[in-house]
Amino acid sequence: MKLRHLILATAAVAALSGTAQAENVLKWGANRDIGSLDPYSFGDSFTINVLNHVYEGLVRYNKDLKIEPALAESWEILDDQITWRFRLREGVTFHNGNPFTAEDVVASLTRVSDESSPLKGNLPAYVSSKVVDDLTVDITLNGTYPLLLNDLTNIHIFDKEWMTENDTLMPTDVGAGTEGYATYNANGTGPFIVESRQPDAKTVFVVNPDWWDEPQHNLDKIELLPVNSAATRVAALLSGEISFTNDAPVQDLPRLVAAPNVEVLEGVDLRTVMIGFPFRDTLTTGEPNPFKEKAVREALYKAIDLDLIHQRIMRGKSRIAGATIAPPIPGYVEALDELPGFDPEASKALLTEAGVPEGLEFEFNCLSDGLVNEEQFCQAIASMWSRIGLSPKLDVAPRAVQSPKRTNANTDVYTLGWATLPLLDSYSPLLQIFHSKDGNAGVFNWGGWSYPELDGLIDAAGKELDLDTRLSLQTEALQIVKDEMIMIPLHQQPMAWAVTDDVSEMPLFPDAKPRLWFARMGDGS
Amino acid sequence: MIAFLLKRTANAVFVMLAVALLAFVIFRFFGDPVEMMVNEQATLQDRIELRERLGLNDGFVTQYTRFVTNAVQGDFGISYRNQQDVMVLIKERFPATFELVLVATVISLVVGIPAGVITAVYRDSRLANILQLGSIVGVSLPSFVVGILLILAFSVSLGWLPAFGRGETVDIGWWSTGLLTPSGRAALILPAISLSTFQVTLVMRLVRAEMLETLRADYIKFARARGVPARRVQWRHALRNCLMPVITLTGMQIGNLIAFALVTETVFQWPGMGMLFIQAVTFVDLPVMAAYLLIVSFIFVALNTLVDITYAWVDPRLRDDTARGDG
């Protein structure tokens, strides 16, 4: 009897959803699922990106990736230069109806910067915050710091009352083995509300009718349908079971372009693909390390045929890069983008001059699940280096295996892709890759180099509140990186999204993050 | 008999401990979960502290002992990536895998047995040859290729069945079933066929071999001599005597299917245990990986032990032999 009720109930639900066909439902076939509903639980930018539809920060990126007010309406730096005062937007409510106040901001910042939070690194300069009045909040930093707003775009604001009621004021802690309410439930201020979630199958977001902002989208519902297998994702797009994917596999693009019901959106990602060198005294083989010599790095740079990689491996879809950052990133100037010129003969001469032994062996560490066509371009580069008389040993494996080798200096030459996320500023690679290892600086300085002059420029930029002065400092630092060939840039990699023809507008963002509050369906027909 | 039971159980426990140990050794080569958990901006210090809090710096023996002690109590900790209790995660995913395996098993029997009988009885007929050829294809095609071909045919070209997912599900207690809704049943068809292809040919070949043997037996000749219709002799008298090994094989293969479902689940985005495991591997989610390996090997060991015990119970020779060996 009970079973029959269930069947009837299901039939009723099915009938209901049948009548609701006129709704604009965007079926998003992502290449993976989000980790959980808690953006603070796992340092995963995809999860944060998806949950940005539900939770919002004090500021956000607009369509041109410029920072604009969101939950905060305005801000100023107080006289002490290290305290920022934010005036919050009035009349914003959370999905559960609670009003948004300064208390919520302080509680959220406390939660994300907690010792056990894997995301506390997202607020590197944060010291404390306090409530001034209901709609004013002061954030104190550990010094003058120009990039607080960039950091805050990624810090989602939770409702304090809701967190207190559900005992989830602190982030979940894997070490202690505690679960959290926010892992399964969400309550933000954003344009969409989480309706239901089945991990690895379907997460449904419905439109928030009480959103404080004027919606530019016309969606009623988003269904996040992860499809890990690339072939299945393409099939699902062709059969119309999904209407959007933010990962259209490169090898299937011709097929998707040819399909009558699919439109492919192609662009160039902000991610710059680079090769890094070891600066230690010895190589992993125990031999003395010649890469400390600039001439040797230059030899390896000139031996790479960037055009060939662009044409053959990236199928003409990448952008050949001379700079370590992409053109849209603040700090970029055209002079940085100058190319070295492909000249294997000059490479050989440089190697001989530097006294590098013929057939020098070194490890070349690449990821099998990292950048676009990484395995192929690594193989190509390895053979280009063989041609100038070196013996690179290609080591390709998944990220999880390679990361420890890279961070523990158990390898020699390696690849790295850097999109400057989440800051979208050239300060990000300068601080995290090119600065000497020191606290939160140089975490990705896997080669172990140290240039005091460079560090000085980066440190000065990190304290400079005037935008133009700061950017000129950063450009100067990037020029040193280029002149010294600390890392050699290859290209910005291509990205491709695809939509079915019922999606009329889907802005493609170069940071590869879908922002569906700009998407529209059915306008054209 | 009691000595035999004890010995079998002890064996099973030993195998489980060995699996746990192996799993632990393998994990060392899977990489560092901390690198996957923190974001780009985390400092070196943050990473070291997190590693310490997760107990990854403890010695191998300490980690192994802690794991086994907790696992015995059914506590596998919480997932690094999903931040959920691992047992709950697996419990949520088990019904999906089980239904898939169940339907695949039914398909393999319903298709495999008649096909086996036909190929045995009408040995050189055209139909038998086609079936034989098909079975070679079935054995040699990897299941992900079968899956993608099925998707191309039935989802993209014909548009009859969904390419991925499990459709609508209905919860009965903690068990979520897709068998009660039309979309759930439709979603089950392609993955079940793809998972069962190998199994179908296995059953077919086994039935064929057994049938060829049985059809030569004296009692079949006597039945034919008595005038029993050929069809009745083949499908009732002969087939029945062939089914015992088929049943044993099917039982033993359930463990295999649960393990192989991993590939099918990835192709069809079937939200089962295999899918969970693949994701756990990508993110070095050690608690989930460990629990999955232990649970799957537990199913294997339990099925094998049960089969052994049943055999011993049915066939006293096995039991006596063991009993003598013990004392």
Question: Summary?
Answer:
The complex is a heterodimer of chains A (525) and B (327). Chain A is α+β, with helices and mostly antiparallel strands.
Instruction: State the share of residues found in helices of chain B, binned by percent.
Output: over 70%
Helix content of chain A: 25-40%
Radius of gyration of chain A: 25 Å
Largest interface: A-B, 68 and 65 residues
Biggest sheet of chain B: strands side by side, in what order? 1-2
Biggest sheet of chain B, in brief? Answer: 2 strands, antiparallel
Which term fits the overall shape of chain A?
globular
Structural notes for this entry:
The complex is a heterodimer of chains A (525) and B (327). Chain A is 28% helix and 22% strand. Chain A has 525 residues and is of the alpha+beta class. In chain A, helix 8 packs antiparallel against helix 10 (344-354) and helix 14 (452-461) runs antiparallel to helix 15. The longest helix of chain A is centred in the first third of the chain and has 18 residues, at 2-19. The relative contact order of chain A is 0.14. Chain B starts with a helix and ends with a helix. In chain B, strand 1 and strand 2 (175-177) form a beta hairpin. Chain B has a two-stranded antiparallel ribbon with strand order 1-2. In chain B, helix 1 packs antiparallel against helix 12 and helix 8 (182-215) packs across helix 10 (230-268). Chain B has 327 residues and is mostly helical.
